[in-house]
Amino acid sequence: MKVPDGAREDRIVLGVQISIVICFYFFTAGFFAFLWHAVYRSVADNDHPVHAVVLASVITIAFLILASVMTMVFSVIIREGRKKFPANGGLANETEIK
Amino acid sequence: MVRWGMVIDLDKCSACRACVIACQIENNIPPPDPKEAANFRTISWMRMVERIEGEYPHLKSNLMPVPCMQCEHPPCTKVCPVGATNKTKEGIVDQIYGRCIGCRYCSNACPYTVKTMNWYKPAWPKEMMDSLNPDVSVRPKGVVEKCTFCHHRIQKAKDRAKLEKREMAPEDYVPACAETCPSQAIYFGDLNDKDSIVSKLSRSPRAFRLLEDLGTEPNVYYLREGA
Amino acid sequence: MEVVKPDGRLAQGERSAAAGDEILYRPIMKTGRGFYTVFALLSLVVLVAAYAYFTQFRDGLGVTGLNSPVFWGVYITNFVFFIGVSHAGTLISAILRISKAEWRRSITRSAEVITVLVLFFGLGNILIDLGRIDRVLKVIAHGRFQSPLLWDVVSITTYLTASSVYLYLPLIPDIALLRDRMKGGFRKRLYQVLALGWAGTEKQIHYLEKGIGIMAVTVLPIAVSVHTVVSYVFSMTVQPMWHSAIFGPYFVAGAIFSGIAAIIVAMAILRKVYRLEDYFREVHFNNLGILLLVMTCLWLYFTFSEYLTVFYGAKPDEIKVFMEKISGRYAPHFWFMVVTCFVIPFTILANNRTRTIKGTVIASVSVNIGMWLERFTIVVPTLMHPRLPYETGSYSATWVEWAILAGCFALFALIYMIFTKLFPIVSIWEVQEGRQKAQGEVAERLKTYLPA
């Protein structure tokens, strides 16, 4: 009876882990929306668009780097952790460090 | 395009401060509480600025009425994070109370110190409540305000002109200070109209503007005293 | 220079190494009465500050000492000060990681936590300073990027995100260690989620280190930009003694300066309270003390440069502000700042014999006080002297402003304390990695420096 429950728990934990990254993407997307909306506003009102364009470009690059790092780290660590579990004899999120 | 401007003749100005009072009544500026006034919190859109040179008894004193300069290149509009202060097409630096978040960056950026802040909710004695001007919004607490050349009067002038089935003439729109000045030291009009009195006076050899070296291009000219 | 003390401490340290750094787990496993007492006292201070803010929210900014022309005062000083302290984590973690300085291993975590937490207080003070905090969403909907305040919003958000990621990544292996220790309950679930299934495989370690390396390089320009744009809020106006090209570098140097001082104080407190003498050793305080010494000299250089330029140029508006600081109403603040930012730290830190743990802590507390005063003497004297002949302003902060300042420190300490109860304040895996792998790596590196 323990194994099915454990597997379900494992899936919940995995779900929360993935949703952390999804939340990060949502936050990044929201921030991009704010930045590029401000660029659009400044171009439409002819209100010194150069500031908005320069800043939005630089910050977009910075956030793309952050999002890439988060994706890379999360995907590799979670995937590797799940691979180990048959060898460990246990569940993915209960792996012990060798 | 119209460019509203003001010329103040310092020879005619007697520093009676009628303009200051007129402005306060017209624009629903609350009378200052004595304690708040002692803490430099009096709101006054038109200020009488005194410059004293020399040592007593050989003093030279200049008194100048200073409204908002309505600069062509306003330092205040540059720094507003939400666009609550902005320059209209007719040359007036506008202040949108509904947009203002009260950060006071514009107040700090203005080199003429013409911006004031509502530190508390504006309050009038009960007896004065009937004398509030219905054409001007009462500001909430926490927003910045300043002289707007009484531009609420433009709408009134346009409405009156429409009623009388004519175009609005430049003389129809005049701010409270210019209207009230007993020595008629304040002239107001369209600086872009080369025939208007303000345009002619702004090109007078007596004309000067405050802090010209900052490049703000104020639309308020002064005529030097003692020609 | 590590001094071997003839007492039991080193022996205890050896024991803790053998016992697998047990002492680092102790704050997480057990909580003593001292913790609850301090927690209660700090909560009291926070409640007073909350009440102070409530009076301001209800009545308006009039409850502060702000007026015309001094529109900005203690709150903006706090904002600049806290954002400055946030450079703590960046310097220690990122720069020392990139330069492969091995002594960083036990101190990176406590520094990174300071950064992430203190940014919220910087942001908080700006929100507190707004006349209409209920309209703050207008900044998002109607933001104008011509305004340096928007540069601030964007830069600080980016820095907050980057430093949170930079705090979390090296935390993963430590969370896995905690996950393996816990028997069950809410905390085990929390650690299971956050550990991402960490098993210490080669691939995981490789990619984690790669991620940390990218973050270390990315977070540096972001951090420099943060305090630079904070300085631009002042230098982009034309006000006397604000409109100065030196503000960008001056503020960044000042930020790193107060950041190092903040870490030293935090480390000293943690060392005492959690008995981490073996992890925060003399050598750490000594090295940070030397960095602090370099920064105090740099601070003096920038300050001297700024004031000499103003004095020599003798522009009338600037001289008025200058004289206010040197010999006017703010002279006590200015000279006290010089003493606490340079005289005291320099005399303590320049001398080997006084650069002990106690000495560096005294110097750091002095620096933090001095740096707060530096921000204050930048903000207020300029505003007191508007260009037009006008009554010179004056400014006296009220109880509301001081209460909120105290509340910020108290809340910061509170949240920091909670962090130490959930996660190890010393990076356990990095210390272990240092013990096992670092010596070999360092020996290899040394060989490459010297001729064959």
Structural commentary:
The complex is a heterotrimer of chains A (98), B (227) and C (452). Chain A is mainly alpha-helical. Chain A contains two helices and no strands. Chain A has one domain. Chain A is 85% helix and 0% strand. In chain A, helix 1 packs antiparallel against helix 2. By secondary structure, chain B is of the alpha+beta class. Chain B has one domain (4-223): Alpha-Beta Plaits (2-Layer Sandwich), CATH 3.30.70. Chain B has seven helices and ten strands. The longest helix of chain C is centred in the middle third of the chain and has 34 residues, at 148-181. Chains in contact: A-C, B-C.
Topology diagram in text:
The complex is a heterotrimer of chains A (98), B (227) and C (452).
Chain A: H1 2-44, H2 49-88
Chain B: E1 4-9, H1 18-26, H2 34-38, E2 47-53, E3 60-66, H3 75-79, E4 85-87, E5 93-95, H4 105-109, E6 116-117, E7 144-145, H5 152-163, H6 176-180, E8 186-190, H7 197-202, E9 207-208, E10 220-223
Chain C: H1 9-18, H2 22-29, H3 33-59, H4 74-85, H5 87-98, H6 108-129, H7 137-141, H8 148-181, H9 186-195, H10 202-235, H11 247-273, H12 282-313, H13 316-327, H14 331-349, H15 357-384, H16 399-422, H17 428-449
What's a concise summary of this model?
The complex is a heterotrimer of chains A (98), B (227) and C (452). With 227 residues, chain B is of the alpha+beta class. Chain B is 21% helix and 18% strand.
What is the CATH architecture annotation of chain C? Up-down Bundle
Radius of gyration of chain A: 21 Å
So, the CATH homologous superfamily of chain C? Formate dehydrogenase/DMSO reductase domain
SSE pattern of chain C: HHHHHHHHHHHHHHHHH
Largest interface: B-C, 44 and 44 residues
Overall pLDDT confidence of chain A: 85
Task: Show unreliable segments of chain A.
Answer: none
Number of strands of chain C: 0
Helicity level of chain C:
over 70%
Pattern of helices and strands of chain A: HH
Biggest pleated-sheet summary of chain A: none
The CATH class of chain C turns out to be: Mainly Alpha
Low-pLDDT regions of chain C: 1-18
Overall SS class of chain A: mainly alpha
**What shape does the CA trace of chain C take?**
globular
